[in-house]
Amino acid sequence: MSATYITLIGYIGWTMLLLLVLAGYRTVLSKQMKTLKFAADGSDVPDVGHRITRAQANCSESFAIIGGTLLLAIATSSTAITDGLAYVLLAARLAQSIVHMISTSNLAIQIRFVLFLVQFGLCGYWLFMLFVKFTS
Known about the structure:
By secondary structure, the protein is mostly helical. It has a single domain (3-135), classed as Up-down Bundle (Four Helix Bundle (Hemerythrin (Met), subunit A)), CATH 1.20.120. Helix content is 82%, strand content 0%. The chain is built from five helices and no strands. The protein has helices at 3-33, 47-75, 79-82, 86-102, 106-135. Helix 2 (47-75) packs antiparallel against helix 4 (86-102) and helix 4 packs antiparallel against helix 5 (106-135). The model has no long low-confidence stretch (mean pLDDT 91).
């Protein structure tokens, strides 16, 4: 199995794991709050819950770019373009989420931004290479 396939599976699995963590957190919290209502942005829960909510949402929001790029490579049998750096992208995604859940300090925000730029840059590079491949 190519690195692109594994990265896509890992990305989806990570997003699902964060959703399960969030659901578990909210389930425990709902017993204390006596309600099952929740704000989708996590603004109604303590800081750690807000950070988990945002980390999970950020994975979902980024899927259009990251998942879309990986799926395009897979669908067009172009994983040779993405395989070389696919694990770097997955590591940056995991690290961004972990940093997001650990802290919201200025340094943590800067680290998250750098990790986001790695992912964005890789997808941009891959899309350019795919474009070149199919327009040459």
